[in-house]
Design a protein that fits this description.
The chain is about 50% helix and about 5% strand. By secondary structure, the protein is mainly alpha-helical. Strands 1-2 form a two-stranded antiparallel ribbon. Helix 2 crosses helix 3. The longest helix has 21 residues. The protein is globular, with a radius of gyration of 17 Å. The two termini are about 35 Å apart.
């Protein structure tokens, strides 16, 4: 079973609202998958279900998940598909590809899904890059 790093209540707290938006459980599950993808090379201690055991790491992963969903809500694009086109039409189908270097590629679409705030949260927590790896190796010696 896939891990989900934030609850609807966590997301409501993140937004500072009393009621989470409809469909948020699915969005949090999808955002958790993206966070897992970002953390594929991160080193941190986990419980038997794969969740971080350190409260600070767990909070960073939760917050990155919430920031990702908020980013999708702000941009209106949870799939990254919108980043592939600068404009689109309906009558006579009119599409103009985006002109940025990677926007027209599947990797570019994936990057468009990434919340800058989530990246900042994970980086500050030492989960992106090699800073945490060095700390953990020293601790295991």
């Amino acid at each position: 079973m896939a891990r989900v790093y934030a609850t609807a209540e966590d997301y409501a707290n993140w937004l500072d609202v009393t009621t989470p938006p409809e469909g948020i459980t699915r969005q949090l599950a999808r955002a958790s998958q993206l966070v897992d993808w970002l953390l594929v090379t991160a080193v941190y201690l986990t419980d038997s279900a794969g969740y971080p055991t350190d409260p600070d790491v767990r909070a960073a992963v939760r917050d990155a998940t919430c920031a990702t969903v908020e980013w999708w809500e702000d941009t209106g694009d949870d799939s990254g598909a919108a980043a592939r086109f600068a404009s689109a039409g309906i009558g006579s189908v009119n599409l103009t590809r985006a002109t940025t270097a990677a926007a027209g590629t599947p990797a570019g679409a994936q990057v468009a899904r990434l919340s800058p705030e989530a990246m900042q949260i994970l980086t500050t927590a030492g989960l992106l890059g090699d800073g945490l790896v060095e700390q953990e190796v020293a601790r295991w010696r």
